[in-house]
Each structure stands twice: as C-alpha cells, then as structure tokens.
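Hi U.,

Before I forget, here's the chain from the pilot set. I'm dumping it here mostly so it's searchable later in email.
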Amino acid sequence: MASNTRNVKLGVCQVFLKGQDLGYTKGGVEVSVTTETHEVNIDQFGKTAINQLIMGRDLKVKVPMAETTLENLVLTMPGTTLVETGGTAATGTITIATNPATSDTIIVNGTTVTFKTTTADATKNEVLIGATASDTAANLNKFLNESNDPGIAAATYTVAAAVVSVKYGNVTIYGTTGMKSTEGNAFTLATGTAGVKVTVSGATLSGGANSTGKMLTAETGVGLELLSRARELRLHPVDKVASDLSEDFIVPLAGTAGALSFAYKVDDERVYNVEFTGYPDPVTKRLFTVGGRA
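Structure:
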C-alpha cells in the first residue's frame, strides 16, 4: 500500500462499555499492548538468542473519566450498588405470537433485528428461528442481552414462554430494578415486517418515573471474579460518524477492578482514571480488534 499522509491519525475518542457511553474524558485515553517473549539460547551460541517465543500478551486501556456520575462509578467499580429511592423503570414486552418467517424483522430501539431459519449471525443482528415460538423467544432474549449495540444494550431482557420482557437499564449496572427514569419511556419497539407474528406492548416502553434520590454503596469486593463481569470496551474516534466502525479499537472482554482517586480543588476537575484489562476470548483467543466489532 502506498504511503498517504491521511493515514497519520490524531484526535480524541468516545468510550463505550457494553454500548454505554462513559462520557467526557480529560487527559487522553491510552492503549497499551505488551508482549512477553522467551529468548531461546543454546550453549554453542553463548548468550546470543537464536529464536524468540511469544509467552503472552497483555492489554491495558486507561480512561481518565471526567463525568463523575453515580452510574459511571457503579459501572466501573465491581462490588458497588446503586440504590434508588422512589421511581420506576420503564417496561414493555415483545411477544412471539407465531414463528416468524426467515428475513422477517422487528425493530428494537432503532435497531433492526432479522429472523433467520438456518444460521444467524449475531454481529449482523440476526436471530435464529426456533422449532416453536417459545424457542424463538428464548433465542431473541439471548441475542438482546448479549448485544453490544448501544440502543439494544440500554435495556435488560428476560423471557417466559413466548414473551420477552424489556426493562430499561442494564441490570449489571442498576440492579434488578433497572434504571428508574422517564427517559426509558422513549425506548422504542416496533414489529417491522414480522407483522402480527410478533406483537409489542406499545410503540415505546412505559411506566418510567424518575427516582427521588440515589446513593452508591461500596463493599470491599474481596473475592469478586472479574472475567464474568467483563464487557465489550469500544474506543470510537470522534471524527467518525456513529455507524462508522472502520477505526474503532474494540476489546471484546474488558474488565476493571475499580479504582478511585480525585481531589476536590477549586481550580481542577474531578477526573478519575479507570484501567481496563483485556481478557482473551476463551474460544477464539481473540484479545482485541481494530476496524470493526469482534
């Protein structure tokens, strides 16, 4: 490939953790990939290495977060809980009345989800049609909960028989109550081309009401296992439109132990640094990707 000055990049990025925007940063997001090797030596060549073997690779992402919201704090510190007083989380349902046909669609908070008969690619927002309506609902529920699409990941999903229940707010962050806010009432549902085969409770979720108070509580966190809490971390250059992932740096499994250090000063912002560790996918062994979602 010929050299091109346009390939010289600079600029800031947005940071998304399982589709949730972590907000403004200050000081620059830093990515560090280190590789540990073992030098192969034999007597006949003394201390001159005759080969090297890769022993492991570590990935760290440091994010200086400038928005010290309770939601950001509980998201980036395992062992914390967001306790809300009053309010309710917006809810709704998606019902598989009868099995949809292949290529039928529904629309979840602006994202088109397509049903497929034989194989379904989750990265293309496809869901496998099951033998029964309940099987299809279970497949849909699994896809929605595992999706890293920001619109879909704004809610949490549970399934019973052929009904998928939708609750605004990721329960990993906000607990079983979801996020108690009127903004959940703007979360949209539509049947798309599936028509009467799939019904929704309404054009939007409903019943969301703002909490009257919030409090974050933190425990010691001793013994908490981090891999099960790891989520997709995505760095998106701000000069690219939201749908353009061509330069996104994506860590499919990123976890953080949580740390907090900031000062209350009259002339400085309360910025706290969060360090994420990338874990390899246990099946694909993938650690990170550049230029598209893993």
